[in-house]
Amino acid sequence: MRQALWLVKKELKYHYLSLMLTLVFIIFLALLAFPILEGTVLRLFGTEHVVYNRIMIDALFVLLLPCFGAIFMSKPYLSFGTIKEDPYSKRMALFRAMPIPVHVLALSRTFIMVITLLLNITVFYIIITLMLSDVFFQYLAPIEYVLFLLFWFCYALLFGGFNPFIENGTNGKVLHLFPYLFIAIFGVLLFVIYYATGIGLVDWSLLAIREYGFIAPVCAVIIAGTGCYYWNRLLTNRLRTRDYM
Amino acid sequence: MKLPIKVSEESREPIYHQIETQIKSLIVSGQLPTGSPLPSIRVLSSDLSCSVITTRRAYQNLETSGYIKTVQGKGTFVNEVEGSRKEETKRKVVQEAFEKAVYQGKQIGYTRQELSLIFEKSLSEIFDREKE
Amino acid sequence: MNVVRVEGLTKHFKKFHLGPLNFKVEKGTAVGLVGSNGSGKSTFFRLLMNLVHADGGTVEIFGKKMPSSEIEIKQSIGFAANMLEPFYQLSIKEISSHFSYWYPSWNQNKYEDLINRYKLDEGEKFGKCSTGMKKKVDFIFSLSHEPELLLLDEPTAGVDLGSQKKMKEDLIEFLEDGEKSLIMSTHLIDDLKQICDNIIILSPNGKVQDFLRKEEVEENWAKFWVSELTEELRCHPHVIKVNDSQHPSYLLTDQKHVVEKELREKGISVISIQRLPLDEIIEFQLDS
Asked: What sequence ranges are listed for the domain HTH gntR-type (chain B) (predicted)?
């Protein structure tokens, strides 16, 4: 644990710049997101007729939140050279060549993901919260709002938690292909949901919170926690058994 | 430290013996005085590009015959060699060198008399040159 | 005592099979690994370090089984195989903080001495170093935690002559007390001649072509220049190569004494006997 945190500290220090860039990008996303979120709530719970795009809000939350677990404004994500050079695998190979226990290595990856996610999502949430109008909170009680944020944090943790595995357990090709795969799967899923129920996932989460209160986010916390634990187990296993060429 | 030693690829003589003879002659000629340190087995092997086992054998033989001694943890040093032994070794070293030359001459097909003449000639060439 | 014991080690790739490898490294000895490009030398090291997982066979280092005592073993190994690239944005000093943290036996004085000896600037970013400098950095980190076993993948490749000489001196010093061992791959014959006691030759298809002991090479391998070559000699099991396209002809043998006796009995006159230089033997082994 102590060793894993030591590694985390070192690495976050080295990626300081990329992390800052990522935050800047997230501020931009937050500015994009808040009017859409406001629209969603006003339409769902209010009477006003607002122009609102269900796909936009779902795309933002469903597709982008999981990315918050990665320092995505860094070279490996931005450069296609990654496909060939596979920098994350090389980094893991280097650490595996040193006397670092595999579980420490895997744990450090999970910590980096959680810390990055916490940092990114906090900034995202703060910006959104500051920007949202009073009208918004007339329709959504502050406690409901908090639960809503918690619910989506869990969602991000569950799917973002898979990212360390993609980064460090696979190769550069998969790292660049995976987002498209993710988009494709969720695109289809969202389409099916719209078609079947007529509401979006964000709509649904808001309704669930109003209906069941605490139960929805609590379930989310449990699922996300379990997910992270198993992602970590999966990564540990993968780091132990993969070939570093 | 480096020793002026060379091993020959051509020679029929085993390498350990070549090393032994050359160190002996360095000692008896006074070029390596009593107490002077010798390179470690590893270092000498590396300098001569030969195996550690070969060098170790040469050192062991030299130690058995009293030319060198190994002080645990400090290294190998030239031992005190008595005067009479020294003289004997000197003679032996030279004799061995002559024998090698004679053997080579014999192989080429020279007779004893012919070799003797060549030997005389070599003597005068080297000693007369020095006189000049 | 054996420091490394490898038995039946195999690894299959789509296009290449390495092994089965069987060999031992005795404590206090230096083993040179030679083989043409693509014969699996780097994979060989990665197999030993459990970075690549064997399909079969066992690796024992310091008498301990490899995957199960992995961390303990790795703490006492100095491994240099051009793997520091992911640290390109770090200075040498920052990289050293990683090594000193993970290796309990880290010796800061030794590290600083080596940095000075190789005239490196600790503040230099690793990514800004030239190929030769990177090699030196790699080499220094492999030695600074005073390992029991060094695994070096072409340590001298691309390094300037002066530093090559220093590396050789450092390796000789490392081996000096007879307690530590070394496996290094190299393409330089001088490394093999001056540092290694034994040589493993990997064939292009990933098998151990030969395990040469230097003292046996000195003792048994020879080139005989002879007046004539009989058919019997050509087929002699210990005559491994003959050349009669020129006069005088010569033959190569890996059993000098046997062939010498044979020649004497047959009355064939020997013009000259030469010990075989290592490079000629290796060249011959790689060709066959």
From this structure: 13-81
